[in-house]
Amino acid sequence: MTGDETTQGRAGAREPGGGDDGSPTAVHLATPAVEEEYLAGVRPALSDLPAPEVAEILDDVRAHLTDLTAELGGDAGVAALTARLGPPSAYAAELRAAAGYPLAPEPTRRERYGTARLAAAGLVVDVVDSAGGRRRGAGHRPVRPVPGRARAAPDRAGRARRAERGGAAGGAERCRPPPGPLVVALPSTTAPGAPSPAPTDVAPPPAPGPLFTSPAAPTPPVEPTPPVPPAPVNPTTR
Amino acid sequence: MDPSQLLKGVLDLAVLAVLARGDGYGYEVVRGLRAAGLHEVGDASVYGTLRRLYNAGLLTSYVVPSEEGPHRKYYSLNAPGRERLCETAKTWRAFAETMERLVGAT
Prior knowledge:
Chain A is an all-alpha fold. Chain A contains 9 helices and no strands. Classes of the chains: A mainly alpha, B alpha+beta. At the A-B interface, helix 3, helix 5, helix 6, helix 7 and helix 8 of A face helix 1, helix 2, helix 3, strand 2 and strand 3 of B.
């Protein structure tokens, strides 16, 4: 009966409350309270970001926490999540740093931590970038969708094929860069059919402008000759 | 040297490479990286990286509803993303060769 006690003790704290049909899918019904509790610690650290972006992040993180609680045994509480991920504020700071969001207004301890990590990341990126002699700061620059080079455009099929081959090797040989400049086709028009991702019910990405402190990388010179006639790329969604 | 410091500079490349193998939701990408041997990668860093790549127009996303839990948001490499992958992979190879020549000589 010890196992029973444990279950009860833990489940009691996060009773989902008023299940619709009373079906015994306790694991899945029981987790949201734990996730929401952890999320409640993440949310304030994002409060300065645009609401749609916050919603996107929290969607991702919520699913993440669900996966983790499932992995940790479905019986996992906030303590187990914290043991695995660190406290919510640290999670948020790490996410912010990796996402390249500007720092939150008030310089709290958490955010200074974020700055340090951001700086460290930037340093290494610099090193890698300059080693290849490629344009700097590209990682933080909003990229306009570009036609051309879409030769292998059958998106789904290509991906499936790659997935079957299952390999970096396959991917690498497929995308052997051409001798010319890599960012060739930057015509004045935007790509047909390849604009902002058109997902089903995901909110469109907010204009990247205000979100990022882009280092204003200069656009490489435009070559007027696209190597391939722009194939219709259609990042369709299921 | 702390591998996580090295990892930060190449996390974009690693995430793009994982997604080149197939679409994935956040935690799938985390697991893909771990399975590839990148154990140092922080979960939150991967989620943040996905958001940044997405906002940069290198990924698309779509939602697959789930009956059991929150819906899953899959990320998918689009044409600019593949282009970035090629480009960054090239940079990486050059860098790795340079370092190997340097370190290998010691």
